[in-house]
Design brief:
65 residues
Amino acid sequence: MEITKNSVIGDILDADNTTAQYFFEMGMHCLGCPSARSETLEEACAVHGVDVDELVEKLNAHMNG
């Protein structure tokens, strides 16, 4: 799975639930919430003040490493 800033959080978690750690690290503890699962990485990072490019890089390294 190739992750981009437009990837939906729920899709990422469904593909690999061990990615939850990266969302917890950025302060996103509401992963079970339907609205959180439907956000894109870019939307979530904007709300939580996180660099989306850095998160995309981490998630891709995790998923494809």
